[in-house]
Amino acid sequence: MSLAYEPGTTFVHRLDPRSKLAAQIAFAVTAFAHTTPRGLAVLTGLTLAVLRAARLPAGRALWEIRFLVVLVAVPAAIEGLVLGPPWVSIADLRGPALASYRVVLIVLVSAAYVRTTPIRDSEAAIRWMVPGKPGRLASVGVALVVRFLPVLRADLAAIRRAMAARLGTERPLVDRIRIVAVGGLSRAFGRADRLALAMNARCFSWNPTLPVLRFSRVDIPAFCLAAGLLVWAAL
Amino acid sequence: MIEVRDLVYRYGDAGDGGNDGGSGGDGDDRDDGDTKDRGIDGESRRDEPHPNRAAAVLRGVTLSIPDGSFLALAGPNGSGKTTLVRQFNGLLEPDSGEVLVNGIEVGEGLIAARSAVAMTFQNPRDAFVASTVGPEVAFGPENLGLDRSEIDQQVERALSAVGMGGREHERLTRLSGGEQARVSVASALAMEPDHLVLDEPFAGLDWPARERLLDRLVTLHEAGTGVIVVSHDLTDLLDPVDRIVVLADGRVAADGPPEEVRDRLPVLGVRDPASSIEP
User: Fold this and answer.
1) Higher pLDDT, B30 or B24
2) Which one of A145, B3, B84, B163 has the fewest CB atoms closer than 10 angstroms to its CB?
3) pLDDT at residue B22 in the model
4) B138 lies within 8 A of chain A by CB
């Protein structure tokens, strides 16, 4: 599995992307406003509910963002280190750990969004929210990132597999990282070139016909959730 | 109608390896390196002339392809096949000579050229812009700014034409190689082109998938779409095509109906599928 759009008929799939974005933004604002154990506990419950509604198992979602988890956990852990016994200061660790956990929750909710929203719908939603040229740039940028990241990850995995098949795993760690990084970068450029060529062949336009977005009754709970979260954040 | 007159195309500077920049499977996709490409805005990104320019990849190619043709463009690896077809819709810009599509010079009407000459690439996965079949096929018509209802109709027609009707919601990554190739063809067809150019469409396909794709191409041709298949392997193509153009060393080495050209294929570096003689 990779974090890409998966067609489906879940409640979250049926939501208008704009209401999903509104709920997501409200969630992020609330997570920043209530970075406390109690606040994050409530948001954890909400995150699990969102993932469940999107039929995205929490364990799989966490696995998909494992590198990000490590990336945000390491600085927090370093903050908690002290020179000398007991080596870890819980008081120093607490703040950064909560902040890191907050980021993980926000990314998990974003994962549910990516999982349930076609790229073109996201483009249309961003274009609606940010009018003019900035909106066009942002929407195409988001679309390309969403399109490209899973492909790049697959490429990196392929390089690692190819390396392992020829006993590359016996090489020193730094050597392995270098091989994967250089190979990944080279493939990324090659893929970007080929994708650009293919998009040009199909008359790539900054202003294409986008899907028609329509709010419906199913969006009401999402907007209520967004409003509730914002009110809570303001308290 | 595609008309190519006295076309010359060179890769980048000889000093940096010239035309070895490709990453394509058969070595013919040599455009990935130092090339002169052209965006949809028509602005050329041509490199400045360099005294040590590499040898020409296309050396004075002249060709005329009427609408409704079924043409095989053959030739050994590196003969310039891919480079030539990418001039048809302005993906590459010639050093000299001209390419006209329906009487209009390609550089002066890029959108018209790209609508009239749709193209599929050797590795369909590299060209996918969406996660699922429907949005992938809709990408071209959306870029043309058509109405949503018209886009939906074109997507439906294109998918039906390749035997993938009703599969709009399937994930592209879950399709087989043959199905991905057919989606790629549908993506090109959705732009309702006069000519469909397929660059090595059978590469990596097993026999049944190859046969199915070929069947679809024959059907499309019978329905009036011009089909240009770029391939170094003419297996099964001698029957359906009405013309074979063989490129060798950047020049048209043979051009005519299959029955006239096939005797010369081995000499030109192309295997005659019915013969045991290897080139």
Assistant:
1) B30
2) A145
3) 37
4) yes
The token duo for A211 is 């899907």
Cross-chain Cβ contact A195/B170 below 8 Å: no
CATH number, position B158: 3.40.50.300
Confirm if B64 and B4 have CB atoms less than 8 A apart.
Answer: yes
Whether B43 shows a pLDDT value over 80: the answer reads no
Cross-chain Cβ contact A203/B191 below 8 Å: yes
For position B210, what pLDDT does the model report?
87
| A5 within a domain of the structure (yes/no) | no
Helix (H, G, I), strand (E, B) or coil at A51: helix
The arrangement of strands across the sheet holding B2-10 comes to B56-65, B2-10, B96-101, B104-105
Of A165 and B52, the one with more pLDDT = A165
Same domain? For A72 and A149 the reply is: no
Q: Which of A11-20, A104-113, B269-278 is predicted with the least confidence, judged by mean pLDDT?
A: B269-278
Interchain proximity A5–B39, CB inside 8 Å: no
Q: Flag whether A192 is in a domain.
A: yes
Residue B273 lies in a domain: no
The reply to whether B119 touches chain A by the CB within 8 Å rule is: yes
Q: Are B272 and B246 in contact (CB under 8 A)?
A: no
Instruction: Mark whether A104 and A145 lie in a shared domain.
Output: no
Domain total for chain B? 1
Place B30 in a pLDDT band, splitting at 50, 70 and 90. Answer: very low
pLDDT digits (tens, 9 = 90+) for B103-156: 999 989 889 999 999 999 988 888 888 889 999 999 999 999 899 999 999 999
Distance from CA of A118 to the nearest CA of B (A): 8
Tell me what the mean pLDDT of segment B48-53 comes to. 51
Taking the C-alpha atoms of residue B142 and residue A210, their distance in angstroms, rounded to an integer, is 7
Residue B191 touches chain A, beta carbons under 8 Å: yes
CA distance B25 to B28: 8
Task: Determine the Cα–Cα distance for residues B205 and B211; give it in Å rounded to an integer.
Answer: 9
Same domain, A79 and A114: yes
Total tally of structural domains belonging to chain A: 2
Residues A22 and A113 in one domain: yes
Q: What is the pLDDT of residue B13?
A: 46
pTM of the predicted structure, to 2 decimals? 0.80
Q: Decide if A123 is inside a domain.
A: no
Domain span holding position A72: 11-118+213-234
Q: How many residues does chain B have?
A: 279
Domain of residue B133 covers: 2-268
pLDDT for residue A16 is more than 90: yes
Same domain, A112 and A18: yes
The answer to whether position B277 is within a domain reads no
Contacts of A199 in chain B (CB under 8 A): 129, 139
C-alpha gyration radius of chain A = 21
Judging contacts by C-beta atoms under 8 Å, the chain A residues touching residue B107 are none
